[in-house]
Amino acid sequence: MSLSYTSSLQRLSNLTQKNSTRKKTATTDVSESPPRRHSPRDNARNVEFLVKVSNIFAKSLDIQALLHEVIDQIFYFMKRIDRGAILLLDKDTGELKEVVSKTRTSNHATPAINWNRAIAHSVVKEGNPVVLSDRSHQNHSGSLDDVEFDDILSAMCVPLRYKGEIQGVIYVDSIALPGGIRKDDLQLLTGLGDTAAVAIQNARLYEALKEELDERRRAEEALTKANRDLEETRDMLVQSEKFAAIGRLSAAVAHEILNPVNIMSMRIQLLEALGGISESIRKPLLVCKSQLNRIVAITESLGRSSRTSEKHRVISNMNETIESVVDLIAPQLRVDGIRTDVELHAGLPLIPMDKERIEQVIFNLISNATVAMTGRETKVLKITTKPNPQGSVLIAVSDTGAGIDPCDIDKVFDPFFTTKDPGEGTGLGLFIAYSIVQEHAGRIWAENNESGGASFYIDLPIERTPNR
Amino acid sequence: MGRILVVDDEIEACNALEEFLSLKGHEVYTALDGPTALARLQEVRPDIVLLDMIMPGMEGTEVLKKIKEFDFDTSVVMVTVVAEQNKAKKTMELGAFDYITKPVDLNYLENVLMVKLLDTSD
């Protein structure tokens, strides 16, 4: 978009040089008598004004700022006017709206001036400038008869016209000085009106364009956000679907594995019962037994990860659930030299839950924290609960261990993921916790603490939402 | 010592249990599925039935109901897995005497059987 005011500038220049009014005015009498030709000083003044205003127009695309400067210049060049305003036509309502106004005695902070509605509307309607000469010796006539003139001694109003369309008016008047409007003021203001109209049009186009760009940017941002949300939701769905499938599969596999394990286990017991086993055989048999027990532990954990029906859920107090687990595990925590810091929110809303399963979750998280702090100097287990305004309860289990490797933070809930030594853990504790939280339509996630260690969070909804 | 009917769809499980319980002096009979077990029930008249919960075809619970219909006094011990414990507990309401979990601890099983046998012989 380019600013084009040159043609209007040229026209105004011609106008002032030729010293002729371009348009017929509503009242042709002007205050100065006898009529005289413009002096070279007048022309110079008009050209100077024009140049100044043109610079303003070239500088700014902000309508408000632009018109403020224009009105300042009008006051500077028209010494005998008292009030001035630039009014723009609202295309939707057809009403004139005062964009800027000024009085001789104040600055821009001036509240709206009481511009003469009849004059301004007449200009909009007729499309011609209106000049009211000094009313102290002039009787007016025609359409302005019924206007209440208040204290206006003289007034002038010119249209702001762009491509034949009226965009608004520039209005000035004088309430104190008789003969406030000079003849060449009309030409000055008329020329200005044409130029200003172009600048206003440019600024309006610019604003419309800016608005359109802003809107497009907002739309793009919204789209980006929607995409991101969608991706996250998809990831969550994939994740939860994956776990649900693993849960079902693992429960089935666990059962299938237990049968051969049962047979092997019974065979070993039978050998022992038969007696007469040499020491060289007894030892490997013990190893076999302990390894079978390991398999059993894994399969039992897998069985726990599978879903139970919602029938087992009762409205329960999360704090009590946590306390019962902590009470159970407290002696072991003391043995391990772990300080327990439990901060349970007193007014926690109740939650529908399978209490045994949720206890399992808390137990697994505490066990996990305990192992994470093995060998650490400071061992603090912190458990907190608090209500979440979004209609859920937030539980946090934090430790002062080594934290989670950022690469692993998404994997910690995967089945068989473990950083423990082989045989030390099944790698199913967090997976089970995840599965159970999923069953309760909740969320579980891990974060590293800023002060070191890791925190596991569970967000469980208060309302029972239908689970998939 | 008692007459024990072992019902398990895994033949090796039947064999191991048979060997162990025989070793302990019991009279042991086996069946690989529910219908066979119900048929043997009449000829064997066992003191105790050792019944696997999960079997193809007729499930343990179903077999238990049929046994109880036939002779309510026949003692039944269910064999199950930890994950199915809740179901196993419910079988006690249907008249099962006890349940044990896999892998079966044979000494524990012997204790359970002896308790029941001594109880019955009183």
What descriptors fit this protein?
heterodimer; A: 468 residues; alpha+beta; Beta-Lactamase; Heat Shock Protein 90; 2 domains; five-stranded antiparallel beta sheet; five-stranded mixed beta sheet; B: 122 residues; alpha/beta; Rossmann fold; five-stranded parallel beta sheet
Plain-language structure description:
Chain A is α+β, with helices and mostly antiparallel strands and 468 residues long. Helices cover 48% and strands 17% of the residues of chain A. Chain A has helices at 6-18, 40-59, 63-77, 117-126, 183-274, 279-305, 318-335, 355-372, 429-439, and strands at 83-89, 96-103, 130-132, 154-162, 165-174, 314-316, 339-344, 351-353, 380-388, 392-398, 443-448, 454-461. Chain B is an alpha/beta fold. Helices cover 49% and strands 20% of the residues of chain B. Chain B contains five helices and five strands. The relative contact order of chain B is 0.17. The model of chain B has no long low-confidence stretch (mean pLDDT 91). Chains A and B meet through helix 5 and helix 6 of A and helix 1 of B.
Give a topology summary.
The complex is a heterodimer of chains A (468) and B (122).
Chain A: H1 6-18, H2 40-59, H3 63-77, E1 83-89, E2 96-103, H4 117-126, E3 130-132, E4 154-162, E5 165-174, H5 183-274, H6 279-305, E6 314-316, H7 318-335, E7 339-344, E8 351-353, H8 355-372, E9 380-388, E10 392-398, H9 429-439, E11 443-448, E12 454-461
Parallel strand pairs in A: 7-9
Antiparallel strand pairs in A: 1-2, 1-5, 3-4, 4-5, 6-8, 9-10, 10-12, 11-12
Chain B: E1 3-7, H1 11-23, E2 27-31, H2 34-44, E3 48-52, H3 60-70, E4 75-80, H4 85-93, E5 98-101, H5 106-121
Parallel strand pairs in B: 1-2, 1-3, 3-4, 4-5
Helix pairs in contact in B: 2-3
CATH class of chain B: Alpha Beta
Distance between the termini of chain B: 13 Å
Approximate strand percentage of chain B: 15-25%
Percentage of residues assigned to helices of chain A: 40-55%
The total tally of domains of chain A equals 2
The CATH topology annotation of the largest domain in chain A reads as: Beta-Lactamase
Q: What is the strand tally of chain A?
A: 12
CATH superfamily of chain B: Response regulator
Individual helix count of chain A: 9
CATH fold name of chain B, please?
A: Rossmann fold
Radius of gyration over C-alpha positions of chain B, nearest whole angstrom: 13 Å
The major pleated sheet of chain B works out as: 5 strands, parallel
Strand order of the largest sheet of chain A: 2-1-5-4-3
Number of helices of chain B: 5
Strand order of the largest sheet of chain B: 2-1-3-4-5
Number of domains of chain B: 1
